[in-house]
Fold this sequence. Notes:
Structural class: mainly alpha
Amino acid sequence: MEEPTPGLRARKKQATWTALRRAALDLFRTHGYDAVTVEQIAAAAGVSRSTFFNYFAGKEAVLFDGAPGEPAAWRPLLEARPDDEPTWDALSAVLLGVSEGRADRMDLVRALKQTSPALIAYSSDLGARFADDLRRWVTDRVPPAERPAAALAVNLALAAQQTAYELWEPDAPYDDYLAALRACLDQVRTGMAGPRPG
Length: 198
């Protein structure tokens, strides 16, 4: 029997990953996060339990991890920013890009966090990894003399993101969160550009 071509293998992997994520999201919406098992997700996607673990380390990963072979969702966004782009513009673009990439599931994630400590812990770990990558990336793209200001910009950008999340009302659409994030980032930009005391 002839082996599938690399392109066909990649498409099959993507199709299986998509089926698993879709099945998991549907089950989580219907039954809640803690009530759903890996076996149920695999069965709903028409694959075995071992196949599930070929794609995801656990249930939490279904909500947060990217497709097979993809780097963390934010890394391509970091790499895409021009070297000469002002730091705040680059940070804003990355935070908005990451947030827009989660639009299909963030309302569900927020609801599930209310009942699942495991999900909160996984999300916090992912957020810490993102913040670490963001800090390293900013440090590498600016000269040493500008690193203190760049570090402050990262902390302000992450604070803007957290503030927007806190302003996102329960049951409001995800677009409200994105609008709040843009507004918070713009407000910080205005404050950073404002007059300094004489």
